[in-house]
Amino acid sequence: MATSLQSTTTLHNGVKMPWLGLGVFLVEEGQEVVSSVKAAIEAGYRSIDTAELYANEEGVGQAIAESNVPREELFLTSKVWNNHQGYESTIEAFEESLRKLGTDYLDLYLIHWPCPGIGKYVETWKALEQLYKDGRVRAIGVSNFNVSHLEDIINQCEIVPMVNQVEYHPRLTQTELHEFCKKHQIQLEAWSPLMRGGLLEDPTINEIANKYGKSTAQVILRWDLQNEVVTIPKSIKAHRIQENADVFDFELTEEEMGKISALNQDERIGPDPDEFNRL
Question: Which CA distances in Å does 193 have to 22, 66, 181, 189?
Fold first, then answer.
């Protein structure tokens, strides 16, 4: 169980991944992303999650270079965007991400969306397998994959994804998907764990937060961790980055966990992976 910011889960290939990290979706390239990543590293974060789409890989790389933490102590994730799906174009996108990040390897590389209408995610996965075999990336995974997409990968490829990063929060608990991932030793990871602020006024979570003297956000992140879901809350404010990490000194009861899970409405704030095919 996660007991500190440096606590890790062990992926099915033996690589250790921090339970809690910083997401940088919609964080502006330049000083904004540099400052937020440096604040996170200074606060003890060791996992940073970016993507080709976010257009801030250079700033993330700059922040890492300017931090006093060695690269090998950090866990760096990026993702290939939909318009680069396909074998050769995925390899090229990976090389470009490395260049922008100023590193010669990634800790985790993901397919950002399955894009079933485009129909290239199996071919794209085979490129990730090659990058993994070549030692360019320590672990490979997917993002926004439903059970059917995962089954295609498992049935047609050699390596089972190590991670599936999906929209996950108390209003979208993805129970069937989570069970499937557990069965196949695929680590579930939450993006938008706070539903972009949409859950911060929820009375059920507020009541639990008041009991522990914690914020609603901290209770939600604790719920993630106790559900064995890696989580990457985004913030650009140093005090909020610190606050999001202050979730290791309390534990929700089984009853409280159940109350939060019961808020599920299968409600998405992002696209449906079965229908999203934007390039």
Answer: 12, 28, 18, 9
State how beta strands 75-80 and 47-49 pair: parallel
Q: Which residue stretches of the chain have pLDDT < 50? A: none
> Quick one: which of 175, 184, 178 has its CA closest to 152?
184
In this predicted model, what pLDDT tens digit does every residue of 39-60 receive, in sequence order? 999 999 999 999 999 999 999 9
Q: CA-to-CA distance for 192 and 175, rounded, in angstroms?
A: 17
Residues 155, 158, 160, 161: what is their CA dihedral angle, to the nearest 10 degrees?
-110
What does the block give as tokens for 136? 């360019």
DSSP states of 103-161 as a string?
Answer: -S-BSEEEES---TTT--HHHHHHHHHHHHHTTSBS-EEEES--HHHHHHHHHHSSS--
pLDDT in tens, 240-262: 999 999 999 999 999 999 999 99
| CATH number corresponding to 14-200+225-238 | 3.20.20.100
Active-site residue (options: 45, 54, 121, 168) = 54
Binding site for substrate, by residue number, is 112
Strand partners, 169: 172
Residues 6 or more apart in contact with residue 133 via CB below 8 angstroms = none
Active site includes 54? yes
